[in-house]
Input
Amino acid sequence: MAGTSAPMSGQARRFTAAALIVVVVVLSVWLFGRPEPQPTVHVVAAAEDWPAGRAPGEFVTVEMPEASAALFVTADQLADHVPAVAVPAGTVVSGTMLTDSVVPAASDLSAALLAVAVDRSLWPDPGPRAGDAAVLAAQPGGCAAAVLPVVVAGEGTVVVEARPQLASVLGPTVWWIWESPPAGWPGCPAPAPQPGEGRSDDADGLS
Output
């Protein structure tokens, strides 16, 4: 014979109702009190060194919160852009590192681009701009090894354009750079030719 359960007392019913309310509140907090997941964006990081002025090289994309990703570029934003400065491998690429691929050197296949670090104390405000004439010298205030046009002005770096023969001479050296005054800047004396050496005809950019 099946037994019958005894009716709950009023106090037991109150305790049961209170326990159910606590369970509902805890579930509500757990389900609805968790922070919403923040939207993310996949931005570009260089997988190899990117030389300035050339098409972007190999890259990967990394996930970043949307609020921070606004500072950086996505893969589709690389179209028709080249690095304004040399980009080391592993760098997350920002918009200021890129420039439109249509730069003066792009139309002159005999030109070369060099990235040179800028000491802002040597360059008057507002700083270097594309089209400025820049003095390259071995020391601040020294004679000009070359006076070259600025193609792209980046953050702490400018890209200048030189003929390949001059670029091969300038490339291995660290140069000081500042804006050339309208009257120009004194050039360095040409080295005396060694016996048996001919005179070079490529003196573009040398003062």
User: Anything to note?
Assistant: The longest strand covers residues 144-153.
